[in-house]
Write a structure and sequence with these properties.
The protein is built from 11 helices and 17 strands. A hairpin with an 8-residue loop joins strand 4 and strand 5. The mean pLDDT is about 95.
Amino acid sequence: MDMEFVHKGLPPMQMVARWEQKHYPEPTLPTTPDLGHELKKLLGRLNICSKEYIVRQYDHEVQAGSVVKPLTGADNDGPSDAAVLRPILDSFEGLVIAHGICPRYSDIDSYHMVANAMDEAVRNAVSVGAGLTTMAGLDNFCWCDPILSEKTPDGPYKLAQLVRANQALAHYAKIYGVPCISGKDSMKNDYQVGGTKISIPPTLLFSVVAKIDDVRKAVTMDAKRAGDLVYILGMTYPELGGSEYGAQLGAVGNRVPKVDGVEAIARYRALALAIEKGLVASCHDCSDGGLGVALAETAFAGALGLEIDLRNVPAEEIDRDDVLLFSESASRLLVTVHPAQADGFEEAMAGTTWHQIGSVIETKKLLITGLKGVVALDEPLVGLKGAWQATLNF
């Protein structure tokens, strides 16, 4: 088909997009939160809980080629950040497949929803050992009808959400050097029942495929050995807008996580180099539920405890333990490192934001010292893992 006709054969549609910033009530934070109780509730939420019941029903092993599977860890039931495949069995080169999705953020701003989805996908790929020089993306739009009509009187706003989403897609694809080589658009996801119209939230599922030069160097998210050091990479801000903790407290909020792409890509390049050099024992991204959920998952996946001091977590404008634990600030990763590799790891991460925040321990519990210097959370792993598994344990 002639390209002139494809692009200019029909007159372009004339549509009006009108953006307005929505504002929502902020979550009412508990005066004295029971952090163990709140963490277990978070671990059981549908966006966070174990999906093992679903994963086990599908064929995720083809010709013995998977290196990092959807489930990993001491009991092969921890949540992997990405999959690593070895498609050519006489080569150690492999493929990394990762995803990012966070539709709740589009309640506040679809621009930051897309930015966070892209950042999450890239971050997940890097966390298992993907290189950044050979990485490509796929944008999968699942959208409500954005065209003004009698049934869609808010069409101009929904179209503006789509415009802002595409602006973010272009902006961060350029920063990360991740071209969109494919995609899918589904733009009429609405349902009318009686006098009620139900529309899905504007959603972008962003997927990446990347190369890993040697699958033997792939890293998983589970803690590996007692005595290893625990690091957090990245800065935490009080960004509870659209978060799981905010939703648990019954509110949307307004301060959605914002992605600093330039800072993030510098961190990811440094981390990729550290993994390539064999300096990283485990790596897990911080996403839904924030640092608190990442700590719990790292611990119970590895069947090892963690002892953490929140006073060492790089943060700004935060004076509450629950906000520091459950904020969903972007571009952060939780890493464990053998003490013998600590100097090399810290040298590799020089010039980026990081800090050692604790260590891996034999005792199977998550022990967290709060910002005031007293124990803020002391929970056995069996309870945390049980809460994570119970929701979909059919």
